Each structure stands twice: as C-alpha cells, then as structure tokens.
Amino acid sequence: MDYKKFLKQGNTMFLPNLSIDTVIIGNDKNVLKCLLLKMGNKWMLPGGYIKNDEDVDEAASNILKQRTGLKDPYLKFLAVFGDKNRQFKKLWQEFISDVNLEWEDDSWLNKRFVTLVYYSLVNIGDTHPTVGFFDETFGWFDFDDLPAMWMDHKSIALTAREKLKEDVQHDYNVYNLLPEVFTMPMLYQLHQNILGEEIDRSRFQKKMLASGLFERLPKVKKNTPGSNPFQYRVKKSL
Amino acid sequence: MDYKKFLKQGNTMFLPNLSIDTVIIGNDKNVLKCLLLKMGNKWMLPGGYIKNDEDVDEAASNILKQRTGLKDPYLKFLAVFGDKNRQFKKLWQEFISDVNLEWEDDSWLNKRFVTLVYYSLVNIGDTHPTVGFFDETFGWFDFDDLPAMWMDHKSIALTAREKLKEDVQHDYNVYNLLPEVFTMPMLYQLHQNILGEEIDRSRFQKKMLASGLFERLPKVKKNTPGSNPFQYRVKKSL
DNA sequence: ACAAAAGTGTTCAGCCTACACCCATGG
DNA sequence: CCATGGGTGTAGGCTGAACACTTTTGT
Lengths: 238, 238
What we know:
The structure is a homodimer. Chain A is of the alpha+beta class. Helix content of chain A is 30%, strand content 25%. In chain A, the strands form 2 sheets. In chain A, strands 1, 2, 3, 4, 5, 6 and 7 form a 7-stranded mixed sheet that branches. In chain A, strands 8-10-9 form a 3-stranded antiparallel sheet.
C-alpha cells in the first residue's frame, strides 16, 4: 500500500474512528527505551488501523511485526484512550502540507479517533525496525528523555512505562527484554531498572530460580574480573 | 431518544463500528448474578454506543447509570472484543422483523462491531434497573445458569466472571457487591462465593481488619442464634 | 595480592496456616 | 443447657529481609 491509497481509500479499508498504537519497549545498556517513528518534525508511536477483515488482535500483532521485524514478539493489551477531543485535524493538516501532499478537509484522518493501545517487550538486538511510508526514520528513546511527540503519544508511552513497573512485580515476563540466553546479573539489573530501586541480589536470585521458569546453561566466559555467571534461558513449556 | 431515531440516525450520532457492553455483577443470597435485558427471544448485556461528543469512559458510565439507576457505581474496564467476524446482521434482521419494524439491509447496526467491555459491581438491593426501548424486561441471572443470549454476550459475561475471581485476590473492591453497611460474615461469604472455595474464617477476618479499609460500627441485632456481629463500612478516604 | 563479580548461606522477624477456644444468643 | 454463629488466640512452619561469606576471575 502506498500513501496515496492510504489517504484516499483508507476510509473504505479500515474501521473508521479506530486506531491501534503500540508502545514497543526495549532495554539498552540498562536504560529502558521506546521505539518511535519520525513523521515530519515530531515523533510518534508505531501504530495503524484495523482492516475491515482483520481481528483487532491480529492488526496489533501485524503492526508490531512489521515495525520490529520480529516473528513472534510479546504483546499485551494496555488500555483504551477514548477522550471525546481526541482528534488531530490540525496536526494532520500541518504535516500534509509540510510534505506537499493535497490536504483534504474531510479526510477520514481528521475525525475523532479512539485508540487501542498495546505494549510489547522486545530485545533491541533482535529487532530490524522498518519505517512506514510517512516516516523518515526510527529511533529508540529513553523514557526519561522522550522527544516532542504527536498528539497524546507521550502520555500513552508513559502510561505503558508505569504499567510495566506494576507488572514486573507479579509477572516475570520481562525476560522478553533480554536476548534468548541471558545471565542472572542481567535479569537482576533489568528488574532494578524497571523498578527504579535497588533490590536484594541474593533474594532476587533465589526467587527467580525457585520460580522454575528458567533453565540453567553452562557458564559464559566473560573477560572482566569476577566469577563467570551461569547462563539461563526460559524453559520451553511442554 | 426513541427507537426510530436510533435506527435511522444512529449512524450520525454514534462512533461507527464501536459499541460498549457492561457486565453488571450483583450478589443475591450468596449467588453471583448478572443483570441482563430481554430483547426479543434472547437476553443481552446492557450496552450502547458512543456519542460523537462523548468520552468512551463517560459513555460506559452513562450506560451503567441508566440501566442500574445508581449514582456512582463501581466501574472497571475489562477487555476489547474485536474479532473480524463480530457482526450480527442476521440477528438484527430476525429481531427487527419479529417486532414489525422496517428492516434495512444497509443499516449501521449490520456492520462489524468492536466492543469495549466494562464490568461493574453493584449491590442489587440499591439498583432500580430500567429497560431500553428495545427491551421487554430485565432480569438477574446466576452466572452458572445464564439464558440464551445474543451474539457472543455469554462468553463476555463469563470472561468478566473469571476476571472477578482473579481480582478478588488482590483488590478488596468486592465490597461494592454488598450494602453500604455490612458484616464480616457477609464479606467472608462473598469472597468464598467468588472464589468458589473455602477460606479460613479467622485469617480472613484478620486480613480484612489489618487492611485498614473498614471502619467498625456497632453490632447488629439479628434474631438468629449466635453472637451479634459488628457492622462495618468502607472508610471514607480523606 | 587485591578488588570486583557471582553465587550461596545464615539469621531473625514477620506472616500465613490450621486449628482451638471463648463468648453471645435463640430455642 | 445446648447448638449455632461470631470473634479472637496460639503454636508451628514458611517466607522474606538484611547481611555475611566464599569462590572465581582479571589486573
């Protein structure tokens, strides 16, 4: 699909007034990052619309796969953003004229949109992001230092960041942010980064091992002082 | 709004392809019940559509207030149901002809709908349900004995029932199912009913009191054998 | 030899569990 | 005075918190 078809025929291809946004979270050198796309002079969350013959979940999953290049990324529903004023006619107008396209006052994009937000946890090293036809480039941004963003996307991203903080205490799913094979110190650092506070190393390790989720592999050879850590991966659940 | 306006002009008043459904849960004689409306020969969850100038949350809240007659009922988002096949043309056609209205093949109601589902916990005694213009009557149904229901409403209701079971272990919000003033034995029974298993009475009471959520009132005079229980109500949080 | 990193132990307090016990009330 | 229901107490076990200890490794 090219942008002309998107602008002209989007109203017939997609469910109207509904969008999907995804907050794609990665972890780089112990800083939590968020994948954003640059459109015009502002950044935005990867998102899209729901085709008439597509499940909502499917649409979210497709968007995520397209943008990250991953086969089966971890995906979870976050929230609905449905304010009555959630309408971005002015922003679209600015952008469309900036890129020298024909502005249409009654475009389907100018209407109010309810957006369904999902969030995803990925290992940045495994991703091969691709941009959409309106996007100049992509970038991974520290949650504490997000750039100027379209619409309400910044607050959506921060909502996901908060949700992750809540979730990490119950679920242990955050290993999705690491490579397939990782060490306990890596997982430990990650939990600390997400929570933003120190946790007891000994207790952490015992809790993780006791969970039975992880399978111990041979030690890695690292070239720094200190003992070599074991590697782990998630047990393939039968 | 009358049904003619609804059928003819719904497409201009509401966000298209989007609906809201609410699973309204009550507790009657230690059985969990669900408020349903009878439309034609089947029952359905109370629901509605989102006005163009209405927040999604507001719409859900309005639907809930209208149907229960309550001022400020407890409301929580449950899930999105967005299957591509979620379209009920045939059912609408049946119903519309059953009640001798004009069937229109291209009605906005015949399209695919994504529904945003909320669930609510109410004290049945406080409610004064009212029916909509398509509904014959309302009824409270045991979750284990739901009647024939429209579309996928039965599975939506059961999803809410499951969610409640999960939530009761973390949140203590289920007191919303009881009258404003209640006793510990009542709360204890309620938790047991939701979980479907016995829990230790002593421990339960201590946990609830330790939570600091409840304020002790004078004992009730009941006319059955055994000691009179204290009454409690939820502390007004400053 | 030393410092840093990784893994594991140890101790203590606090909480959960499973009962037991006591008191109030109606029949 | 007995059965029932409501409130609380208690002994044992388990878990979490805080910290200590040991081993491994590079410099």
